[in-house]
Design brief:
It is built from three helices and nine strands; from the N terminus they run βαβαβββαββββ. By secondary structure, the protein is α/β, with parallel strands linked by helices. Helix 1 (9-30) crosses helix 2. The relative contact order is 0.21. The radius of gyration is 16 Å and the shape is globular. The chain is 23% helix and 35% strand. Helix 2 (47-54) links the parallel strand 2 and strand 3. Strands 4-3-2-5-6-7 form a six-stranded mixed beta sheet, with helices on both faces. Bound molecules: inosinic acid and magnesium ion. Inosinic acid is lined by residues 45, 70-71, 77, 100-108, 153-155, 159-160.
Length: 175
Amino acid sequence: MKLAPFINQAQISEMTKKLGNQISQDYQKLLSQDESLLVVVTLKGAMIFGSDLIRELKVPMELDFVRLASYGSGTRSSGAVRFLKDMESSPEGRHILVIDEIVDSGRTLAFLTEHLKAFSPKSVKLCSLLSKPSRREVEVKLDYLGTEIEDKFVVGYGLDFGEKYRNLPDICILS
Ligand code: IMP
Ligand code: MG
């Protein structure tokens, strides 16, 4: 296994700040005075990106987590998505922002979006740090995206391969 530097901490931080500003501006308009944004971070991968991004948000917010599984320990999706952990708050009547770290086939976020919409939220928007458009099998509309990447397997900054490498501060290509 070889690790090659790909996106460094400074680049990640710049993307995160940009996204944070964009999101803050949009929800400043969308939220009424007594409303807060419900941020749903997908575990485990998005916990590091999520923790950096929410500190850039300048709107009232609440934090929740889901954990979905479609991947085993390999680099290919099995197709099926299921909840390992559901949210604690109700999505009903809320403005929801889902934070993910990478969109590959799109199955995870398509599944989560459908699930959330069944609870009649006011809105559901999706934010991902990375996206691999060439791998898409199901269409997902990303409202906020850090950057598109090629079909390479990346690790670090929360992203794993068989649960390893999540702690790397930079994003690296694994080969
Ligand atoms: P999707 O449902 O196929 O879009 O898969 C999304 C999930 O697959 C992500 O949240 C990651 O957990 C995992 N994944 C996809 N590509 C990569 C990668 O390059 N590195 C690490 N995990 C990945
Ligand atoms: Mg994820």
